[in-house]
Amino acid sequence: MADAPIDFRTAPDRYRHWKLSAENGVAYLTMDVNEDGGLRPGYKLKLNSYDLGVDIELADAVQRLRFEHPEVGAVVIRSQRDRIFCSGANINMLGLSTHDHKVNFCKFTNETRLAIEDASEHSDQTYICSINGIAAGGGYELALACEQILLADDGSSAVSLPELPLLAVLPGTGGLTRLVDKRMVRRDHADFFCTTAEGVRGKRARDWRLVDKLIPPSKLADETKKIAEDVAARSKRPKAGKGIALPAVERSIEGDAIRYDSLTIEIDRERRAAKFRVKGPAAAPPADAAAVHAQGAAFWPLALARELDDAMMHLRLNETEIGTWVLSSQGDADLVEAYDALLAKEASNWLVREIVLYWKRTLKRLDVSSRSLIALVEPGSCFTGTLFEIVLAADRSYMLDGAFEGSNQEPATVRLTAMNFGPYPMGNGLTRLGTRFLAEPSRVNELKDEIGEALDAETADELGLVTFTPDDIDWEDEVRLVLEERAGFSPDGLIGMEANLRFAGPETMETKIFARLSAWQNWIFQRPNATGPEGALKLYGTGKQSKYDRKRA
Amino acid sequence: MSIDYTQRIPNNVDLSSDRRLQRALENWQPRFLDWWKDMGPDGTLNFDVYLRTAISAEANGWANFGYVKMPDYRWGIFLAGQDPNRVIAYGDNKGKPVWQEVPGELRSTLRRLIVTQGDTEPASVEQQRLLGKTAPSLYDLRNLFQINCEEGRHLWAMVYLLHAYFGRDGREEAEMLLERHSGDPDKPRILGAFNEKTPDWLSFFMFTYFTDRDGKYQLASLAESGFDPLARSCRFMLIEEAHHMFVGESGVQRIVQRTCDLMKEHKTDDVRSLGAIDLATIQRYLNFHFSVSLDLFGQEASTNAANYYTMGVKGRYLETRIDDDHVLTDSTFDMDTAEGGRIVRKTVPALSALNERLRNDYIEDCARGLIRWNRVIEQAGIAFELKLPHRAFNRRIGAFNELTVSPEGTVMSEAEWKANEHKWLPTDEDRAYVTSLMGPAVIEPGKFANWIAPPQRGINNQPGNFEYVRFN
Q1: What pLDDT, in 10s, does the model give residues A185-243?
Q2: N or C, fewer C-beta in 10 Å, chain A?
């Protein structure tokens, strides 16, 4: 691909599409999309429509509000444009994009919407959407991610999901699921709503639970402010707290090596694999929460989470043919354990809570990255507690039994901490251990007895914590074979299989959103009725009418 | 409430035998009258006005003159005669018989088009509700009221379609047409230009010349609709719309006439000292109204317009007289647009350029009135020519929005444009001056305000001193 790589690092002073301001405990995220500010040439971001670039800024703002603004208890999403809130994902952009870019785009926007809900639910930073005009498709889906939706009652402002009638596809950011699962809109009302291109406005929108409150447009700004300030006043976030700055994540890309402070990645193009090496902390953790504040973004768990996050985004978007991520680590397990102990001890501190929540989201991002995940536990590694979640996230893990010949390193061990038993649930609401041992829930309890133990390969195998434990004679071949085999399979087949196997257990709104997204995107989005030469998505904007294959499959 | 339908609501849609429609209109009619009393011409309920009422769609039926109190005006429902062999003239459905019922898949599209058109009709009545207080003559006052009543009838025409063909949603939309109000910050009219004020009679004449002419082109495109009842409604409305534009064209012409007469008589350019409107001010008003009316045609590249065409719901101006394939999927269109800070000529797919094509037809039509106005100036021997500004001048919608362009079509910096704006668009001072001329209404039959000449002939050939409005 000749396009320049997409960089996910940004900051408010570089935003082109959003304005971020704060007053009286309320932050205002104001959308004003720059028409000519598309990430790629060939389309204009008209009517506050968005592409990945717009959402990268939104995700950055959502993240910064949590870390940099402890005093903010409510966030208002609104539009700068007259009578237009947001018209959703830019259709011309979708038409010009490759399939994998579209999927990546939808996945990222979904993660951003979930991060918004996570902030409302877990950080007491509640999102409120103030709609001053048309909120169509992704525009309404953005509203659906907020806890309250306020709609101007002017006889024309409407919310809509016109994807089916206009484009023959479905809303790509959880719209259908949130409609019936989150807002509990009656299914017959939802059916009418989703087949009516112009959407629903006014009293009917409120009666049908599509929005929460109708406000005359002349009062919309003031009422929104009042509602948000009330919500903010009830928030338990520290109003006098001081945020920490999130400077740009530093990285260097040289050839096939990507280097961060606590993470390096080497790309093996022949095997279509990227080897992640996570580095443990260099020194003992700070004494308490105050000292964590003092370290700020340099605090090792936070720094590593940000680097992992950035690396995953980079590889997802810019290295689409690198299908296997090999996960390894290096460092002092005792230090990692000490950091986990600090995170557990200071769990009630707002910043520490944010860091743990961020790790939760980062690990979830790993779960849905559409890559084969192979963990390698070698001597010198430090897969302990929080870092052991990476092993648990992998589709398979290989742990060296004993040491490499001629090496004086101690044999590899892994270690559990309290962090493996609750703070990092997957999308299905269960911990990775809980999901792993779905058949034997008591086993998870028994594992608590092992907390803090250095578990060698044999024990880890016995406890079911790793997949295979080859010795040094077999190791190299085993690893080579799994990578080569993986590289030989169909990427589509692998993605589907892995996603099916990873998320055992109960359905949640989140698992439904991702599962149904991949189902429809990989079917409806690919079918001629949408993307064929006479499909609705292909012809949108040309004035030509789509011709559908009328067979129900 | 029982209504004698043929008497109360003249119609050619067999209203008396359609119970569903009767029920709907019985409900809506009182609300319409309340709206007329609240938002129609201010303080006029008791006036007897010499109005033309359409009582049938026959050649002799559309123009019946007589004194009427406006709340008693018989707002009728008329569709132009039906052609049983009419087929859709364009798009994917070209050659198929026109629809007598709304096709399900086009329901919301058609409803939106009808609502957008319908919303402009009462809007202009609201915009003009205070003008009667400053009318320059009984003749002009009567013309204003005629237009107001006919805009009301056009609203009825659209409401009829909503009630007859769109079920419950249509009834709700019909109610909303009375709930939105021009300039209301909470429930504004749909299109921006219909939320502006019409503060004086020069603005009114310019509005009826330029903005009602947009209405003519929209109606003419809808008159090509494959949905036959809409097409027939719009064809009948066009007859009345022509009168509105006549009021605008002759109104401006009479102002120009008066100005030229005074210039000639007093051998001066300074007609303001004589209580008339100078030609330069007229040009600035013209520039303003022309440019905001151009915006009403929408974006140059329009997906909606293309879809409407392909579906067969909205055609081009005089579609059937155009010599091409009427499908346009392989056709192109040359147009001016903005790119990289310049005005450039581009060849684009014809389907996406339908708004621009209609705008072209409109501009050509606008130019005709200027020829007549300039003839008046020329006959007075005055060296001045009224001109239409360049299409890129003072635009808010479409590609030219990003440029600052002079009326001659020169692209310039925003600073330079701002520095010259007072030469091109009405200044606060211009507006204050024109407002200052708007004295109390001239109500003596045969008399006219000082800044406007009498018309060449009266309504329905009535004499010059005819009492068009009786105040009671």
Answers
A1: 999 999 999 999 999 999 999 999 999 999 999 999 999 999 999 999 999 999 999 99
A2: C
Helices A350-367/A300-318 angle, 10° precision: 30
**For the domain bounded by A12-234, which CATH number is listed?**
3.90.226.10
A545 CB near a chain B CB, below 8 Å?
yes
Q: How far apart are CA B179 and CA B457, in angstroms?
A: 39
Check A541 against B190: CB less than 8 A apart: no
Candidate from B186, B328, B352 with C-beta closest to A154: B186
Topology agreement, domain A12-234 and domain A254-501? yes
Q: Are A80 and A28 in contact (CB under 8 A)?
A: no
How confident is the model at residue B11, as a pLDDT?
A: 85
Q: Is the pLDDT of residue B1 over 50?
A: no
Decide which of 3.40.50.1010, 3.90.226.10, 3.40.1500.20, 3.40.50.300 is the CATH code for A254-501: 3.90.226.10
3-state class percentages of chain B: helix first, strand second, coil last, to nearest 5 = 55, 10, 35
Q: DSSP string of B20-76?
A: HHHHHHHHHHHHHHHHHHHHSSTT-TT-EEEEEE---SSTTTS-EEEEEEGGG----
**Closest residue to A542, CB basis, from B108, B351, B354:** B351
For residue B133, pLDDT beyond 50: yes
User: Which structural domain range is residue B379 located in?
Assistant: 5-470
pLDDT tens column, B351-386: 999 999 999 999 999 999 999 999 999 999 999 999
Q: Are A168 and A546 in contact (CB under 8 A)?
A: yes
Comparing C-alpha atoms, which of A77, A213, A75, A227 is closest to residue A157?
A213
* HEC secondary structure over A172-205: CCCHHHHHHHHCCCCHHHHHHHHHCCCCEEHHHH
From chain B, pick out residues whose CB is under 8 angstroms from the CB of A542. 303, 306, 349, 351-352
> In DSSP terms, which residues pair with B470 in a beta bridge?
B48
